[in-house]
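SUBJECT: A protein chain and its fold
Encoding: whole-number codes for local backbone shapes
Chain under study, with its fold:
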Amino acid sequence: MSMIESEAEIRALREDLRRISPPYLLRKYEATEDEYEAITDEDLKCEYLDGTLIMHSPASLEHEERLVFLTTLLSLFVAARGSGRVYGSNAVMQLGRRRFCPDLSFLAAQHTERVRGGRLIGPMDVVMEMISVSTRDYDLGDKRRAYHEGCVPEIWLLDPDQKRFVLDTLQGTSYASRDVSSGRLESKILPGFHLDVSWLLQDPPPKALECLKEILAA
């Protein structure tokens, strides 16, 4: 296959994806890292796992509203503590040959040297996934296992629709997991940060500033 044919196929694939009605999670097998680099742009969320391209549909408004709330809450907390940087869902985390785009992630100030070439080479300190119907099996299966294999220190898997909230924390060479439907999840990587999971069940979500005050007062 020539480079011109490859580029034409990539353009056609992008256009095909834009015509598909969400939700969807598509996989292209026998893909290469070069194909991932060629197809990825700011309009298409794509990940690369062991020779497979995983292409995500645009998120629902409800998903985005919850994610905006969580992003605001985490960003305000990190800014108040001056502890690092917060990234959104287009930030690429490269773990070996694998590439992922967590919905939300935190990088500690002491690890900023991992930012190279517009992406993170190595694990974020905290990743958070807001699970949807199209990503549930992938997030809780292949992606979770890959995060474990990449030694991501803290993994939040948040599924408001199923009222299931999971926190995996790396302890030595294995993970301790907490799986709840109510109550709080507390971060080990960000001491003092906690999430009352009921906040993600409210429609609309509560005011992030009021939740931050509750966190800081705890």
In short: The longest strand covers residues 164-171. Residues 1-5 have pLDDT under 50 and may be disordered. Residues 61-217 form a domain with the tt1808, chain A fold (CATH 3.90.1570.10).
